[in-house]
Amino acid sequence: xxxxxxxxxxxxxxxxxxxxxxxxxxxxxxxxxxxxxxxxxxxxxxxxxxxxxxxxxxxxxxxxxxxxxxxxxxxxxxxxxxxxxxxxxxxxxxxxxxxxxxxxxxxxxxxxxxxxxxxxxxxxxxxxxxxxxxxxxxxxxxxxxxxxxxxxxxxxxxxxxxxxxxxxxxxxxxxxxxxxxxxxxxxxxxxxxxxxxx
Length: 198
Hints:
This protein is about 25% helix and about 30% strand. It has helices spanning about 15-30, 35-45, 45-55, 60-70, 75-80; strands at about 100, 105-110, 120-125, 130-135, 145-150, 155-160, 160-165, 170-175, 180, 190-195. A hairpin with a 7-residue loop joins strand 2 and strand 3 (about 120-125). Helix 2 (about 35-45) crosses helix 3 (about 45-55). The longest helix has 16 residues, at about 15-30. Residues about 1-15 have low confidence and may be disordered.
């Protein structure tokens, strides 16, 4: 969690996304009737890590959030959308939900957040040079993804293949198993992911 800076008292604002996310993760576990031990078994994460995460003592890494999404059968965007208010029809840049995993060097922006009744969404990802994120399984088997690199180079491992995707290139596939996103550098990579639910 980020350090809190001291300053003059301020009126309480909206609850930070990390706290809302922690609360939603705890709520999902209870809705599924799982103990922390059962969730640890399903995700491979330690019980203590999951407990600290649900109390908002730590922020999840992208990899851990991916494991939790798979356990709860949700895309990351769906989960993040559940912790914000009803998304508007027009998603203004300044109001798009941004989530950062500082440890792995990943920034994720929900450009077009999921909405009930719609199957597609657009996410912007930024990876710093050397960032390497692996996901054990898709949150929803058969998830369709179109990855369009806007700047830099992205190495994607999916469907048994390894692809070097450069600025302007688009890689598309249905995701059934593990995947990996890596920025080989020397510059950061910025890319858009179009996600379509099966």
